[in-house]
Amino acid sequence: MVGTTSHLPETGALGQEHITAWLAALAGRRSREEIHELSRALDIVHQIHNEEPTFGGMQHRLALVQTADILDQLNLDTETLVVALLSDLPGAELECAEPFGERVQAMIRDLVRIRTVAVTGSTDTSARQSENLRRMLLGLADDVRVVLVVLAKRLQLMRVLGSLEAEDQQRIADITQRIHAPLANRLGIWQIKWELEDRSLRVLHAEAYRQIANALEEKREEREQFIEQVIERLQKQCVEHGITAQISGRPKHIYSIWRKMHRKAVNFDQIFDVRAVRVLVDTVAQCYEVLGMVHGAWQPISREFDDYIAHPKANGYRSLHTAVIGDDGKPLEVQIRTWEMHEHAECGVAAHWRYKEDGKGDAELERRIEWMRAWLEQPGEGDASIDDSDAEFEAQRIYVLTPDGKVVELPRGATAVDFAYAIHSSVGHRCRGAKADGKMISLTHPLESGQTIEVITVKEGGPSLDWLNSSSGYVVTSRARNRIRHWFKRQDYDQHVSLGKASLDKEISRLGVKKPDLEQLLPKYNFKALDDLYAAIGRGEVSAIQIANLQVSSAVRDDDEEITAKAERRITRHTGKGGQVVVEGVGDLMTHTARCCKPVPYDPIVGYITRGRGVTIHREDCSVVNRLRQDQAERLIPVAWGEDQSQGTFLADIQIYAHDRKGLLRDISSVFSNEEVDVLGVKTHTDRKKEKASMRFTTEVADMTQLSRVLEKLAQIPDVLEVRRQV
């Protein structure tokens, strides 16, 4: 626990003799220049606050010096103590901090922002709001020392809480338990954490606190003395066995005992870790060796041994836990682990604060807390350690407030539009302006942590398309972008339906396939109505080429299954230039594709038995087949595409209409070359008067998918007017 130095009074007035004695005590571990800086800060405190009382009637100067004294006992640097002394400067007096340098001024400005947030955002007691407020306090602090000043000021307030009205005591203790104690826990400042928790419990659950305090039957100092004796005895045994060990311990504080009693639903007598020590060694073997020494020195308590090394917890936590009867007949818990296990428990995924607070993983928050704790654990490194890590330490998120005090988390760089959509989609749609801390700001202005944002809306209206332009800077969050896109989707639904119909009709005409039965495709894309599918095509969410290909292949393959079932015993499969085809009822016949219609998988097809050339495969809608149905229907047989078309190639005629220009044929040839499509023949015609060209290319393609891709890329060539498959 952080104690209160005897040089300062607990209450009453702060006299010059107290200040002189306090500075003299500090002079033993601080330089003359540092004492001079503190004296200058104390002079300013005297000038600004004089005999001014704080909340509750205590002298303001005394409260500030007590806060600085708490930080001194934590071995914080002199700059932090100066900030604590000047932490309550009124806005009009902030220039008084200028002689102490930019870092001190920056920390004081952060404290002013935090003070505003603490008043505005602490009224909502929900767990989510409390967590957001804790994150906000961490996000507001560009320097970890600011958070320490906040915690020290809170501890000083809790120590004098008895002078306030009962209602104020309850409110302050509740905020302390929800916000400040968890912050101290996360930063590993155990002394402040324990005292904040105990003092909060004393106010919020006075009877429970009194019962546990009485049950302990001893003062904290006596328990600490017992722990020291245990450490001394264990350390001696480790030395005798040649084991290098670091042994530390602390008596369990009252809040922790109370919480465990509630969590496990047990009485005080069933709490075995009221007093505990922790042993850190180098190897796993040494862990078990120390365990044997503990059980040899004290009597183990049955059923109170847990081997989390052999059987780690789900979060990866590893350690040996045992409970024994101490020399005074009272329980003692001993934890034994390696340094690696300890590092994992303190800073890894098993970190104490995470599972004690039932926290979920948050990489950004954990990174920031880990940096803070690392800095706190390296005293004496000098001020450079703060500056050198500024980029790494910078928060990646911001926390801003609504006018009613709700905390909203956003990524760094977020704007008022992002904030509006985080509140509600309708607020975002109708957003037309914003205020930050009462002042108008641009909708593209990045927000800062701690600001109170008010969104100015209209009764009706929608977002602007400019908001979706990434270069405009209106939004950075995916939530806002998705809501804006969704709004425009609904507004332009009819237009997209019309556009989708036209796009699909054009693609079907270009591929030369039949009009599909789109109703069969609705379940595949999770659409309930045909217009929804058309709208998706119009918005570019579903490709018209994809729909055309799917309906052809699925419909034809259904026919294939029926034909194949009929011809199970009398079929032959041939792979030639036209790929693999299943012929019903006729064996040992060669197949080839008709040059008149050039079918491609999976066009609807029919076979024609020729004289001496096997079976010719035609498209069902081929004009030649229509004539044959009248004159030679008996020579038409059912055929189907085989399952594997990977080895075949197919002829396809591609018709292109374009404005004639120099280099047009070269651009078209580049597409065929890049798509690895062979061109077997070309017919071109140019109308000089209209400067238009008509070109037909006979190509070899692998399947309809490749043909669709080629048609799409040909259509994108400048001056090309129309591209389609010629059938």
Q: Describe it for me?
A:
The chain has 727 residues and is of the alpha+beta class. It folds into six domains: 16-204, Hypothetical protein af1432, CATH 1.10.3210.10; 220-361, Beta Polymerase, domain 2, CATH 3.30.460.10; 396-491, Roll (Ubiquitin-like (UB roll)), CATH 3.10.20; 493-553, no CATH class; 567-641, no CATH class; 650-726, ACT domain (Alpha-Beta Plaits, 2-Layer Sandwich), CATH 3.30.70. It is built from 27 helices and 22 strands. The strands form six sheets. Strands 1, 2, 3, 4, 5 and 6 form a six-stranded mixed beta sheet that branches. A four-stranded mixed beta sheet has the order 14-16-15-17. A hairpin with a 5-residue loop joins strand 15 (605-609) and strand 16 (615-619). The longest helix has 23 residues, at 544-566. The protein is elongated and about 120 Å long. Mean pLDDT is 80; it is low at 347-361, 379-392 and 551-577.
- Counting structural domains, the number is 6
Structural category: alpha+beta
Distance between the termini: 90 Å
CATH superfamily of the largest domain: Hypothetical protein af1432
Write a concise keyword list for the protein shown above:
727 residues; alpha+beta; Hypothetical protein af1432; Beta Polymerase, domain 2; Ubiquitin-like (UB roll); 6 domains; 6-stranded mixed β-sheet; 22 strands; 47% helix
Q: Could you write a compact summary of the structure shown?
A:
The chain has 727 residues and is of the alpha+beta class. 47% of the residues lie in helices and 17% in strands. It folds into 6 domains: 16-204, Hypothetical protein af1432, CATH 1.10.3210.10; 220-361, Beta Polymerase, domain 2; 396-491, Beta-grasp domain (Ubiquitin-like (UB roll), Roll); 493-553, no CATH class; 567-641, no CATH class; 650-726, ACT domain (Alpha-Beta Plaits), CATH 3.30.70.260.
